[in-house]
Input
Amino acid sequence: MVSTAQSTSTPLRVGVVGLGWAGRQHLQAYQAIEGVEVIGLAGKETGLLAELGAEHGIDGLFEGWEELIAQPGLDAVSVAVPTFLHAPIAVAALDRGLHVLSEKPIARNAVEGRQMVEAARRAGRVLDVAFNHRRRGDIRELKKIIEAGELGRPYYAKASWLRRSGIPGLGSWFTSRELAGGGPLADIGVHVLDYALHLLGEPKVLAVSAATYAELGPRGRGGSGRAAADAARSAFEVEDFASAFLRLEGGGTLLIEAGWASYRNPDDLIDFTVYGTDGGAELRVEGASDTPVGTLKVFTETDGANADRVVRAEPGRAHRHVVEDFVDVVRGDPAGWTAHDGSLALTRAEIIDAAYLSAEQNREVQL
Output
């Protein structure tokens, strides 16, 4: 298969599979980019499919993703569907020569993730995974501070995403191990793992020791009122809280927490704390993803005196930034496509798999 760069003068023709919140974020982001045409949408919700097609002027409307990826002239597709469908759709699309942008996590597990990466390499096409939280303005500011060496060598960090009552659909695919692959560790914890390792400079993870808990979800607690009522009749097969301690190459350590439900402050929290040899930093985002910018504090000293400060940051562009980056890579030099084969997202899946194994066997797992 011959690789050719996508000229900005030639429309990039894309499709979106999935009509939920994430799929609509991809759709809106594509339509805001000059020279990108959304020529198809796929989803089972026929009413919503027709509504979005009419709203955005899209004629290609399909209930099945197979029909969408078979459309002539299609260049790329976004996959924004339940996790168990990521691998089959992505592999089929890549095998047809399409570039793929998938929602996180890459797949239910590393085995499926590896199949996706191998398909991208086989096809010579781009496979990116949507890690939008690393594109937050406050995280980008903190990344600059760490890279500038202001904190010295980071040796310990902890990061979390915690909710009070945030199980996303008790009794839905989210709480099915077969369909989702896991609970909050796989769902929101993968975001935490991604931005934490990104901030620390992508150190290799050597070992994981983890614990998982399912204390509220099985009793119908931790979701909305109706969801909680439905849960009494539905199996809850995943955790509702997880904690993982990671040993990093070079001697550093990282603690990750991910919770859909626990008795804590009602406001969601996304945070990151890092201690370095010359300084430290703390980012707290109260209200989580609904808060554009969190509070970022840097702790240092000058001549033995505290020189702490609060750092201002601009809001990030979330999924818009993710989609823009994807489009830029696809339109760029094909020689650069090999660096975007899903490998980074696969490493996240391998770490999460190790965490679940550690929790199941009550031991540290080496990677």
